[in-house]
Amino acid sequence: MAQQTYHYGTGRRKTAIARVRLYPGTGQNFIINGKPLIESFPLEVHRRSILSPLLLVNAADKFDASIKVTGGGITGRAEAIRHGVARALLSSDSNLRPSIKKAGYLTRDSRAKERNKYGFVRARKRKQYTKR
């Protein structure tokens, strides 16, 4: 079997990590963890988020993708894939950098769940104070 050339990008969001491989193709085969895109992400919002870097640079019909994603929830996974797709696009053509960067797809969203502090119920919620 001949080795196919691909462009690789890693995306992260919260605890989700996506490893994205973009292959030259028709844009019809977006395989995520062995399942098609529509099966992995039934909500249109998530699918639009994943494909947004490709739509931004008019490359939605030029690449097929093979994606492995672990950790996180469905939204975190979708945004990790978006980050990975943007990075893989950048490795395919470095002239796309200004438009992808301006859209904010290259910046890793560093927000994550705040840790629980001792003496608190959650990260910031305290136990109820009783005066008497």
Strand order of the largest sheet: 1-2-5-3-4
Number of strands: 5
Low-confidence runs of at least 5 consecutive residues: none
Number of domains: 1
- Biggest β-sheet: count, sense, barrel? 5 strands, mixed
User: Which structural class fits the helix and strand makeup?
Assistant: alpha+beta
Name of the top-level CATH class: Alpha Beta
- Arithmetic mean pLDDT: 93
Q: Percent range for helical residues?
A: 25-40%
Basic shape: elongated
Briefly note the CATH topology name. Ribosomal Protein S5, domain 2
N-C termini distance? 77 Å
Structure write-up:
The mean pLDDT is 93. The chain has one domain (7-103): Ribosomal Protein S5, domain 2, CATH 3.30.230. The protein has a five-stranded mixed sheet. The radius of gyration is 19 Å and the shape is elongated. Helix 2 packs parallel to helix 3. The chain contains four helices and five strands. By secondary structure, it is of the alpha+beta class.
Quick description:
The chain is α+β, with helices and mostly antiparallel strands and 132 residues long.
Overview features:
single chain; 22% strand
Structural topology:
Blueprint: E1 7-13, E2 16-24, E3 30-32, E4 35-36, H1 37-40, H2 44-56, E5 63-70, H3 74-92, H4 97-103
Parallel strand pairs: 3-5
Antiparallel strand pairs: 1-2, 2-5, 3-4
Helix pairs in contact: 2-3
